Amino acid sequence: MLELKNISKNYKNKKVIENINLSIQSGEIVSLLGPSGCGKTTLLNIILGLTQQTDGQLFFNGQDISKQSMQDRGFNIVFQDFALFPHLNAYDNIVYGLKNKKEGMSKMEVQEYIDFLELTPHLHKKIHELSGGQKQRVSIARTLVMQPKILLLDEPLSALDGVIKESIKERIQSIARQFNLTTIIVTHDPEEALTLSDKVLIINEGTVSQFGTPQEILNMPENKFVEDFILRQLRIKRHNIYQLFGESYA
Fold first, then answer.
1. What tens digit of pLDDT does each residue of 87-125 get?
2. Which segments does the entry list as coiled coil (predicted)?
3. Taking burial as the number of CB atoms within 10 A of a residue's CB, which of 5, 18, 40, 150 is the most buried?
4. In angstroms, rounded to a whole number, what is the distance separating the alpha carbons of residues 85 and 35?
5. Domain residues for 13?
C-alpha cells in the first residue's frame, strides 16, 4: 500500500499542491486527473522521489519513505515521450538498465515480458522504425524488466491514436492485474482516467477535488468543478463512456 499524508509542495512561496491525502492499495490502477497546471505531475514526481515535498509524509507498505532517494524507492516511470535511445535497437533499449542492476533478470525472464507485450518481431528494429504503439510497449517493457515496486506513467496515451491507444490501455490493465503491480497514471483526459483506472484522483489548483471509483465520480460528483470538468470533456468523447457505463452517461 502507498499512503500520502498531508503532502504539500511550494515553489518560491507559491503552493503547487496542498495537503494531499491518498491511499492506494496493492495492484490498483489510479489516475491523477486534472487540467494543465493543477499539480498532478508535481505529485507524480514526489511519489517517484524526483521532487522532494515541502511538507507531509509518504509511506510504502508501512515504511516511511519520505526522505528516501528515487533509487532506494524502487519505483519506475514511463515517460510521455518514451525517452528511448535512438541509436539502440528495441531489445537493447529494453535491457539497457539491467547492466547497472545488481540482481538482473535472466534472458528467459526478460523474454517473458517481451512475449507478454508482443514485441518479439520488433526486437532488432531501430527506434525510428517502430510505430508509436510499439515505442510505448518498448518503453513499458524497459520499465518492467527493472521490476518496479510501483509503475508510474506520465500521459502514456497522449501521443497515440485510435486502435493503438485502446491496445495500450488494455496492456496497462493486463500488466496491473497479472503482476499485481500498483500503477499510477497522470492524465488530463477524463475519458482515459475513467475507462482505464480502478480509482481516480481529481486535482484542481493543487488540492483534491474528489477521489473515488469512476462510477462514484460519474454518479456523485462532489463539487461543481468535478461535474463541469468531467461532463464538459465527456460530451466531446461520448462513445467510449457510453460503452463502458451505459446510456445514462452518453
1. 999 999 999 988 877 676 788 989 999 999 999 999 999
2. none
3. 40
4. 30
5. 2-75+156-249
